[in-house]
Specification:
Layout (H helix, E strand, L loop, with lengths): L11 E5 L2 H11 L3 E4 L4 E7 L2 E7 L4 H15 L3 E10 L9 E2 L3 E3 L5 E3 L20 E4 L7 H11 L3 E3 L2 H11 L2 E10 L8
Parallel strand pairs: 1-4, 1-5, 5-11, 7-9, 9-10
Antiparallel strand pairs: 2-3, 3-4, 5-10, 6-11, 7-8
Helix pairs in contact: 2-4
């Protein structure tokens, strides 16, 4: 019996901020191996025979950055994906719209992504979502429609989250690909409850 000397394929790495953001993904995945770290848990499994690792980082830039770096250090993914919910800033975005933003801005309106371009990591998925959008990552939840309108006017961003720019920077520093995949949780006209 020969040993298989082929290198282990690099996984796709996914960072979710909240358990509810990962729920549907985890339900469809089935069996997974759990790695308990000091501050977080990383799961490993397969989607359509492709290795994938994911974690639930917690909300915000620091939590996302730490989780992404832990994933890079321990699992060497070929791509990091920041996945989950985002608030709409553009009036045409409805609940549940899935977007793969073309540009990611940090809260200083600096373009973090794209710095290169992604390959076909997600393949045909790009055909069913709008990618000609800009996402801005901010430090705190944008709750009112007035705040959303102001942020839209100042930045021309289409959607807002609290993690993607941090994950993009970790990916950039590690020289791996990056994608954000976001579903709209609240429209530009909605004010979130306190």
């Amino acid at each position: 019996m020969k040993n298989d000397t082929r290198p282990k394929p690099q996984p796709l790495g996914i960072i979710f901020a909240l358990p509810i953001e990962a729920h549907t993904f985890e339900r469809r995945l089935g069996n997974a191996t759990k790695y308990q770290g000091q501050k977080s848990v990383i799961y490993e499994g397969h989607v359509f025979d492709h290795p994938v690792v994911w974690t639930i980082s917690g909300v915000g830039r620091e939590a996302a950055q730490n989780a992404a770096q832990l994933m890079i250090d321990g699992h060497q993914p070929h791509t990091l994906v920041s996945a989950g919910f985002a608030g709409a800033l553009a009036p045409n975005l409805e609940h549940g719209t899935v977007l793969v933003p073309e540009r990611i801005l940090d809260d200083n309106q600096q373009c973090i992504y794209p710095l290169g371009h992604s390959d076909q990591t997600l393949g045909p998925v790009g055909k069913i979502v709008d990618s000609n959008t800009t996402l801005i990552t901010v430090k705190s939840v944008i709750t009112s429609k007035e705040e959303k309108a102001r942020l839209r006017q100042e930045t021309h961003a289409d959607l807002v989250d609290m993690e993607s720019a941090a994950v993009a920077l970790v990916a950039q520093n590690a020289n791996v690909q990056f994608l954000a995949v976001r579903a709209i949780s609240d429209t530009s006209e909605e004010t979130l409850p306190p």
